[in-house]
Design brief:
Keywords: ATP-binding, Nucleotide-binding. It is built from 15 helices and 11 strands. It is α/β, with parallel strands linked by helices and about 325 residues long. The protein has a domain of about 110 residues: Magnesium chelatase subunit I, C-Terminal domain (Helicase, Ruva Protein, domain 3), CATH 1.10.8.80. It has a 5-stranded parallel beta sheet with strand order 2-5-8-1-9. A two-stranded antiparallel ribbon has the order 3-4. Strand 3 and strand 4 form a beta hairpin. Helix 10 packs across helix 12 and helix 10 runs parallel beside helix 13. The chain is globular, with a radius of gyration of 21 Å.
Length: about 325
């Protein structure tokens, strides 16, 4: 690990380079700065992201742009009901040599990429969805009993349409927990949509350019893990995560009333990483309480579930999380 002076210099240099990456992404992606920053946060943290949004909001374009700017080899898989695990992982085929000898040869599937786009992931069957579980956690896959390491770095950016649920399969809790954050991609505001019209319907279009290499991204991920985090931030993260578990003694009253299951330790780990990455993107050397507040919903919302009664009452999970965040932040400020 570098000493304090060298670490500060490295963090500042990386912050400047990330500024260039954001500028390059902005040449293709108009607006949606929060979505872009969350996607970069996930990649800097070494994790995966689930993009939730309606069709036509630029989710696929964002993934393509990120692969270009971050210098990553990418593949795209369109998830459909008839997609099989072998269509993602690859399979073994029987080859016959010139001497007549036969042996199995492994043909890699599209998962062997540094950035995998899983488009409309909830349209595939649970069996196919589960093909990603080992890859997302262990960065390797097992085919015919043999492990195969995936390229480094390895990121999955999956998209999901929140309204067309007919013929879809909800992601299991274990797989949702593998996603570092969930990113809500909303409609642009009027001025942003006007800028999109002018930028994308003319003859001249500005394309993003590469800023990072894969090796530089791996180095950046290592640097994020070296960023210092104050004890107060650690305690705020613990307070928040534990307050969101209905069976915990520290559970917030609204959680006991509305939530059937809450986030596990992986959520706290995700918050620790993402608040560092967010601070880095903002040009700061250490994360703040505001970083925890900002990252609470993206990290927690897919790791919690409302009870049937709460859904019947029309409660929204994001509102429940916001109430807990406000309560824990107020208590921390008072302390």
């Amino acid at each position: 690990m570098a000493d304090a002076h060298d670490l500060v210099e490295e963090i500042e240099a990386l912050g400047a380079k990330l500024g260039g990456a954001r500028t390059s992404i902005g040449q293709t992606i108009v607006g949606q700065q929060e979505v872009v920053d969350l996607a970069l946060t996930a990649m800097l943290s070494g994790g995966h992201a689930l993009l939730m949004g309606l069709p036509g909001l630029g989710k696929t374009l964002l993934v393509d742009t990120l692969s270009t700017v971050m210098g990553l080899a990418s593949n795209r898989v369109q998830f459909t009901p008839d997609l099989m695990p072998a269509d993602i992982l690859g399979s073994e085929v029987l080859d016959t040599g010139e001497d007549g000898a036969r042996q199995f040869r492994y043909i890699e599937g599209p998962i062997f990429a540094q950035l995998l786009m899983a488009d409309e992931i909830n349209r595939a069957s649970p069996r196919t969805q589960s093909a990603l579980l080992q890859a997302m956690q262990e960065k390797s896959v097992t085919v015919a009993g043999k492990p195969h390491a995936l390229p480094a770095p390895f990121h999955v950016l999956a998209t999901q349409n929140p309204i067309e649920q007919e013929g879809t399969y909800p992601l299991p809790e274990a797989q949702l927990d593998r996603f570092l954050i969930q990113i809500e991609v909303a409609y642009p505001d009027r001025q942003t949509e006007r800028d999109i019209l002018l930028a994308t319907t003319g003859i001249d279009t500005t394309l993003s350019h590469q800023v990072f290499t894969a090796a530089e991204l791996i180095k950046a991920q290592d640097l994020v893990r070296q960023m210092p985090v104050g004890d107060a931030i650690v305690e705020q993260i613990l307070d928040l995560v534990r307050a969101c578990r209905p069976d915990e003694e520290e559970a917030h009253p609204v959680i006991r009333e509305t939530v059937s299951w809450g986030p596990g330790p992986r959520a706290a780990q995700a918050l620790m990483l993402t608040v560092r990455a967010r601070a880095l993107l903002d040009g700061r050397l250490v994360p703040s309480h505001d970083d925890v507040i900002a990252m609470a919903e993206p990290v927690l919302i897919h790791r919690m579930a409302l009870s049937f009664a709460a859904r019947a009452e029309g409660r929204k999970l994001k509102d429940v999380i916001a109430e807990v965040v406000e309560a824990t932040s107020t208590r921390k400020a008072a302390a």
